Amino acid sequence: MGTGILEQLAEGPILGDGGYLLELEKRGYVQAGPFTPEVVIERPDALAQLHGEFLRAGADVLQTMTFYASDDKLATVGLAGKVDDINRNAVQIARAAAAETDALVAGNLSLTWAYLPEDPTSPDHVRALFDRQLEQQLDAGPPDFWIGETFSYLGEALLFVERAKPTGLPVMVTMCFEQPSPQSYEGDSPGECARKLRAAGADIVGVNCLNGPEQQLPIAREMREAVDGYVAAQPVAYRTTARHPDFTAPSSFPYELDPLQLSRQEMADFASEARDSGIDYIGSCCGSVHAHVRAMAKALGKVPTEEREWKSGTADAMSAYEYHSHTETEV
Question: Does residue 331 register a pLDDT over 50?
């Protein structure tokens, strides 16, 4: 494989990592509600452990834990003064973890909740929020490329591309779609979003979060048909429906999501279908843990699928697995 994200994508599909915020919330390190990433400075060991889990599962990329790490969002929990520390430390933690392998580090930025198209001062404010994160992550790393994600407003996604592109690092940007008929808040279809983001200079365009694989893969396919560049898809590992495609909308979010979590085989099936659909960057988002990522890695041929040979020394089974003749790939 080549050393950079674009060189690696030219050789075949890349596997992203899994979900951070919800998994760290379940482990007691992130507060549900604000979902802000103070774990980066309060418990860096917990974050490093999760990075390591995704690496051992076969991920090609680690994202920095800097989702919601902008001034306005951190100010809601009294951490506006920690913006620089969180962004810098997150890059250093991811970089240290990635040093164990040849994994790439993606500097992560997200929606700011500050973009208001009806307010003429809003774009410049959002630019400033992005610029501060980009600057701090560059100084601390730099990352290998950028991921801007979970944008409902196409205008905000375009501002991210505008600010990230001059850094000279490759830029990936993904939209999210919460309605049964997917479109940006401005009314752009997924294909239109992909074309406009690509025209603005994004190297990789795509979709992430909110939707499970069944709802998200058709969106990614529409984007694939709309552009000739690289396309990404990172669904949640929760079951959503055509009627309710956004996993955050029901009252089950976030405390009763467990029954909705997809099996590792379902995520493996998504990875295979995404690859066969021409999706280049195949990842996962909220609810996706190391078991999901490993199953996806196996489906994509990134980790071995063979089981170690084993059997009891007598004619009698020595486990229920053996007794019922199970295999990992049994459906």
Answer: no
